[in-house]
Amino acid sequence: MSETPREARVLNAVVSLVDTLLDDFDTVELLTDLTEHCALLLDVEAAGLLLADTRQHLHLMAATSERSQELELFQIQADEGPCLECYAHGQIVVVSDLSLERQRWPLFVPAATDAGYVSVHAVPMRAGGSVLGALGLFGTHSGDLDEADLLVARTLAHIASVTILQDHAPNEATVGTQLRAALNSRVVVEQAKGYLRERFDISVEDAFAMLRQHARVHGQHLTQTAQILISDSDARPALLADLEILVRQRNRD
């Protein structure tokens, strides 16, 4: 059987994401799906998404792996890197060979190289003349993104912006409200991941995968499942029992 043409895979991904936007969706879950589509559709290994709050401080919203998540967080902590530069200037950043950029990003380049990445790119999330954040793309081999890849990346970054704003026209008031709601959702999910990591002695990545799996199976939002785990003492025992079964299944596998 021949492989599905790239154009068809891109269109299928866009349709899937837009269909989700037209339904009752969870912001963190959808943005995580979006970063995973980036890694599948573009000539990159991993992707992550940083979102700015109303004070223009960037926060992690989604990433394809623990390794890319840690690198996105490192950019914020080190206050340098492609996503920060992309957000600050509102322009696409394309770096085909990280080894040539040590003077530009003296802290970020060694961290990215140690993580196994050789090239990095960043695409701004825009809405109503404002930059909401940046989509980071990390490659394990050198090379630029071609025009087709850049178009796909811009399209996915635009969908990410629509995801944040949902059905509200982008102005100062609505953007601030939606940014706070999205960032609060991510905080709840991060708390739940940390809780599961300590409870079951598993990796953060496994904890997130289990939360997503449980939410999908039970028709819940990812944030809703995380909120039960963190703050609903009545429903938490049943949820933990279900998650413990998932842990055992993963250990057997």
TrEMBL record:
SMART domains: ANTAR, GAF
Superkingdom of the organism of origin: Bacteria
PROSITE patterns: ANTAR (PS50921)
Pfam families with a match to the protein in the record: ANTAR, GAF_2
Domain ANTAR: 169-230
Keywords tagged on the record: Kinase, Transcription, Transcription regulation, Transferase
GO molecular function list: kinase activity; RNA binding
Keyword Acetylation: no
InterPro entries: ANTAR, CheY-like_superfamily, GAF, GAF-like_dom_sf, GAF_ANTAR, WH-like_DNA-bd_sf
Protein name: ANTAR domain protein
Transmembrane segments annotated in the record for this chain: none
Organism encoding this protein: Mycolicibacterium chubuense
Keyword Transcription regulation appears in the UniProt entry: yes
